Amino acid sequence: MRRFVLAVLCAAALPLAAIAQEQGPQITVTGEGRAAAVPDMATVTLGVTAQDADAGAAMAETKRVAGAILDRLEGMGIEARDRQTSDLGLQPVWSNYRDDRAQEITGYEASNRLTVRVRDLAQLGDVLGAVTEDGANRLSGLSFGLQDPDPVEEEARRDAVADAMQRARVLAEAAGVTLGPVLSISESGGGYAPEPMMMMEARDKSVPVAAGETVLAARVTMVFSLGEGDQ
């Protein structure tokens, strides 16, 4: 019985060995690429907070300020699709802890957070200055990006493939073998990486902002076949 089982296992392993033999030796390398472009869009996350002994009054104040900010943004040409309420909050404000007295609620803090896309970077400093003037008292995020990232992403991918091919050539040469054709290629990773480059001009009631560069990264894994070295 054991001999029969062993014979079956060996027979099952033969096709796998034949496939490995048919494919021959291979090399797997990973290449990385980057491409930079001047950003043409910014995303700002700003907020309004207000405290009051009455929860309704706190919410009403944040609603009033947020409404004024949205009206100002509309007047500055920021389209409705680029103005979004991203979070609303209400939480109690507690008194300081004292040994002889338990904590108690002394009021409420309401918050309203907005996410704004600015597609004209020359306007960004004025937008930040305007919303601050209208009552925005929280700025939790500012990021730069590209409205059409596809051409830059393609450039980063080409750079990653060229990097992988160069690595494969060096390794094959060092090992004394010849580099064969590409057997497979896959992409992973990538993303944005800000790089400071320039400072936007500041004007009255405008906030100076460093626009920098937007860098897109790409990573590819390539498998090459290998041939024998020169005889």
Give your account of this protein's structure:
The protein is an alpha+beta fold and 231 residues long. It has two domains: 23-38 and 149-227, 2-Layer Sandwich (Translation Initiation Factor IF3); 41-145, Alpha-Beta Plaits (2-Layer Sandwich). The protein contains four helices and seven strands. The chain has helices at 2-23, 55-75, 124-133, 150-175, and strands at 26-37, 41-52, 83-94, 105-118, 138-145, 178-195, 213-227. The strands form two sheets. It has a four-stranded antiparallel beta sheet with strand order 3-4-2-5, with helices on one face. A three-stranded antiparallel beta sheet has the order 1-7-6. The chain is elongated. The two termini are 49 Å apart.
Topology readout:
Elements: H1 2-23, E1 26-37, E2 41-52, H2 55-75, E3 83-94, E4 105-118, H3 124-133, E5 138-145, H4 150-175, E6 178-195, E7 213-227
Antiparallel strand pairs: 1-7, 2-4, 2-5, 3-4, 6-7
Organism: Salipiger thiooxidans
GO biological process, one term: DNA damage response
Keywords: Signal
Quick structural gist:
Helices cover 34% and strands 39% of the residues. It is α+β, with helices and mostly antiparallel strands and 231 residues long.
Properties at a glance:
231 residues; alpha+beta; Translation Initiation Factor IF3; Alpha-Beta Plaits; 4-stranded antiparallel β-sheet; 3-stranded antiparallel β-sheet; 4 helices; elongated
